[in-house]
Amino acid sequence: METTYRFNQAIMKLYNAFHDNTLNPESCTQCAVGNILDNNDFWKHLSDNHGSLRLNYVGLVHQNLGRRFNGYTPLELLQIETVFLKNCGYSLPLHYKGHKPNNPRDKEILFHGLAAVVTQLCKLDNIPNIMDCSKLFAYNLEDTIQEKSILKNSVEIA
Predict the structure, then answer these.
(1) pLDDT by 10s per residue, the chain, length 158
(2) Which of 70, 74, 99, 110 could form a disulfide bond with 91, CB atoms 3.0-4.6 angstroms apart?
(3) Is there a cis peptide before residue 93, judged by omega within 30 degrees of 0?
(4) Has this prediction a pTM greater than 0.85?
(5) Cβ atoms of 114 and 89 closer than 8 Å
(6) Secondary structure of the chain: what % helix, strand, coil (to 5)?
(7) 113-151 burial, b if ≥16 CB within 10 A, otherwise e?
(8) Longest C-alpha distance within the chain, in Å?
(9) From its phi and psi, is residue 143 left (phi > 0), alpha (psi between -120 and 50) or beta?
């Protein structure tokens, strides 16, 4: 499978952050996007709310100018962060009264967030989802759903 440079770099940075215990969803420099952007927090100025998909004026200017940060547009960065936070168990956008996991640095919680981020990175680069293990087991969920639907319809007819 052929991947992109930005994809490879992002995966490498996220892998290292996860295994070095430096991944933190509540820090703009240590979250998914913070790590992809070399532990910088300038990206937080692209939106008014952490975990929002809405670009603010600064974000729109960068987006409309075609600006990319480590290969990603401002909107792509917000999408990555939103997927990460949502799959770590946060209600979005982040707010002190919103729902959050009891232990946001728990490895299992972070893994779920990162698995969703990898899926999102694959979508953004139009590459097959490397997190999809159905091929490993030679199992196609869509075929199974169709088979069950056909069986259900034939039982109802009889």
Answers:
(1) 799 999 999 999 999 999 999 999 999 999 999 999 999 999 999 999 999 999 999 999 999 999 999 999 999 999 999 999 999 999 998 888 899 999 999 999 999 999 999 999 999 999 998 887 766 676 665 665 665 555 555 555 55
(2) 99
(3) yes
(4) no
(5) no
(6) 50, 5, 45
(7) bbebbbbbbbebbeeeeeeeeeeeeeeeeeeeeeeeeee
(8) 64
(9) alpha
